[in-house]
Each structure stands twice: as structure tokens, then as C-alpha cells.
Amino acid sequence: MTAFSLQCGKCQRISEAVPLATLCEECGKPLLARYELVEQLGARFADAWDRRHGGMWRFSELMPLRDGESPVTLGEGNTPLLALERLGVELGVRLLVKDEGRNPTGSFKDRGLAAAVTRAVLDGAGELVIPSAGNAGAALAAYASRAGVRARVYVPADTPPGVIRRCVGFGADVVTVDGLITDCGRLAAEHSRESGAFDVSTLREPYRLEGKKTMMLEIAQALGWRAPDAIVYPTGGGTGLVGSWKALKELAALGVLEPRTRLYAVQSAGCAPIVRAWKDGLEEARPWDCPATVAWGLRVPQAIGDFLILRALRASGGGAVTVTDDEMEAGALDLGRIEGVNASIEGGAALAAARALAASGQLDGGETVILFNTGNMVTY
After folding, report:
1. What's the DSSP call for residue 375?
2. Which of 67, 165, 284, 323 lies 20 to 30 Å from 358 when distance is taken between CA atoms?
3. Looking at the predicted structure, is the pLDDT value of residue 192 above 80?
4. What pLDDT does 132 receive?
């Protein structure tokens, strides 16, 4: 296990990894875990990772664990990377899907919350709080239960009943809010200040990102330590997209691969602050008024890590695209009916976006393109 520190994603200030770290003290922006990476170590690490089992924690040298520490785990990670042969023929590319619906509570949120809960509990947290549009709440509840600490989840009142039942089923205190995820975030922050509960909102602590980046570590490993040509990522808060770029850069720093992957963010036409900012050439995104989409995970009118998302899109040579609710619903159905993938509507959004990107010539024939199916249909 390697030592880690924290670096602000905006002002680049480096600080010690203090217990229960939140945002940068200088500029209030997200902190990112920073590892001492030496290129000569890359081959040794990759060889060790290839021999290990144990889900996402096998990448311990790139995870926020210190010597002698053990993670809070339910067996998350190690999800399959499935070839989509029929759909790939349609798009003219080598198409694969990272099927995150296989995680313990049914979504990619398990990776981020496993890492966040692990670090928070090791650092002394006894209660955790989160705003959620759905799957993050269930994941926090499960991992808090596993760790033996309390969890409170704030969700919009129109959240699907099945999502709320899963949060309650894992033992969380659930509070419904007449409003959006941003309103839930405000109330979660208030509860944190008043009660001392640690707020594990997206990118308001450094370690959910570290869990999410393991998706890309697993993809690179499955491809024989080669980077894919492009990924298509359904983007709400965007932690997994930022984490993917971070993972590629860390592997490059170790000399394991060249980070040549183009990153594409996909958002709903009814809530697309990142796409609008990307098209307007902005470094940060304006809040989206009156967000409306059936994809709860994409109904995020303002992301705290917007500048990190936009930076990754531009640095990778990728881009951003919107799809309609009808297109993403059709995509989810096609993933199931054509390829047998148990896809969430957000996974359907990734397929719909890939179709649009292929039609516009942004995906070249024969390229390796990864779709992210961030959950399964049961999570709704």
C-alpha cells in the first residue's frame, strides 16, 4: 500500500490526508487523493494485480488505505466487461459494456460508497449522511450497516418507491424532500453541521472518486493493460467519468499504458448542464433550470465537480451529447432484448449516445468503445 495525500482539483494545493477531509480549505473545491507514483513500479504493480482476487480492492496501491487497514466491503467490483457483438456490428465498432448492475446493491454507487465509508469509518465517523436521487442512498445504507454505523439519506419526494424501500431495508433513516437533489444536498449539509454526521455527498469528500475509478482500472486490466479508444458515460454528478480519467493518468504515470481514451459524457435533453457548458466552451456549468427526465441518476442540475468533468472531456479529446428520454428507454430495451444485459435507463442512455456519436462520425470503425451500464433495471 502506498502513502497518499490530497490535492485540490482546482487550485492544486497539496495537503496532508487528514481525518474526515472535505473540500479544499483555500478555494472550497473538491480534493483528490494523490499517490506517489514511480514509473518503474508499474510493471510490478500490474503483475501483482493480475495475480490477485478480491474485487476492486486488489488495486490497493492506488487506493486510500494505509498499512494494516482493511476495507468495508460487500464484494463490490470485478464486474464483467461484456462484448456487445450485435450492437457493435450496428455501430461499426468493437462495442463492450461495463455491467455495473452486478454490484452488491445493484449499481456502480457501491464502489464509491465502499471507499468513502471505509475511509470515513477508519477516520472515526459514527454517522454518515448523503443526498441521493436513488442508488447512492441504498449503497450508503448497505455499507454503513456493514460497518456498524448510522446512515441518513435525503431523497426527492418523487423518488421511485422501490429505491426508498431499499434504503430502508438496509437500515437507513430516510427523509423525503419536496425538491431536487440539490435541495437534498442542502439539507444533508445542514444535518451534518448540526449533528456531526459526516457528509459523503458526491465530491464533497475525496474517496468516492477513488472507488469509482476502479471501473477503469478493471477495464484496462481486462483489455490486457490497454486503454480503450472511447468511453461513453451517463453523467449526473460525473464522479465515475472524472475517476476514469484519473485512473488512466495514474496508470500512465506508472508506465502501464498510454491514456489515449476519448471520454464522452451523455446527459438527458431535459437536464444537460455539462453538455451546454461544453458546447459553450465554458470551464464551469451554469445550473439547469427545471430539470426533467425519467432517468433519476441524470437529474442533477448542478455538479460540484463540473470543472473536473469538462477538463477531462477536453483533455481527452472527447465531448458531450444529449439524448431524449425515449432514446434512452429504447437503448435500455435494446441492451436487454438484443444482448441480454440487465440495463438501467442510464445504461440505455449510454447506448443511445453511442449511436449518435457513431452516426456523426465521432466513433471510427474498429475502435474499442466502452459503454457504462451504471445499474440494473431492478434498482428502480
Report:
1. B
2. 284
3. yes
4. 94
Partners of 264 in the beta sheet?
232, 319
Per-residue b or e along 28-37, where b marks 16 or more CB atoms closer than 10 Å to that residue's CB: ebbbbbbbeb
* Nearest residue to 238 (alpha-carbon basis) of 265, 219, 215: 265
What is the pLDDT at residue 133?
83
The sign of the torsion formed by the CA atoms of 171, 173, 179, 180 equals: negative
In this predicted structure, the answer to whether residue 1 has a pLDDT above a threshold of 70 is no
Q: Write the pLDDT tens digit of every residue in 354-376.
A: 999 999 999 999 999 999 999 99
Q: What is the mean pLDDT of residues 334-351?
A: 98
How many Cβ atoms are within 10 Å of 366's Cβ, its own excluded? Answer: 9
Cell of 295: 432517468
3-state secondary structure of 271: strand
Beta strands per DSSP E along the chain:
4-8, 14-15, 31-35, 81-83, 94-99, 127-131, 150-156, 173-177, 198-199, 230-234, 262-268, 319-323, 368-373
Question: Over 60: is that where the pLDDT of 112 sits?
Answer: yes
Q: How confident is the model at residue 40 (pLDDT cuts 50, 70, 90)?
A: confident
Q: Count other Cβ atoms within 10 Å, centred on residue 47.
A: 10
What type of residue sits at position 194? E
- Average pLDDT rounded to a whole number, residues 76-83: 98
CA distance to 20, 84, 107, 175, 193, per residue, from 245 (Å): 24, 23, 20, 34, 32
Residue 379 DSSP code: G
Closest CA to 335 of 100, 112, 138: 100
Q: Which three three-digit cell numbers place residue 29?
A: 473545491
* List of residues 6+ apart from 66 with CB closer than 8 A: 1, 3
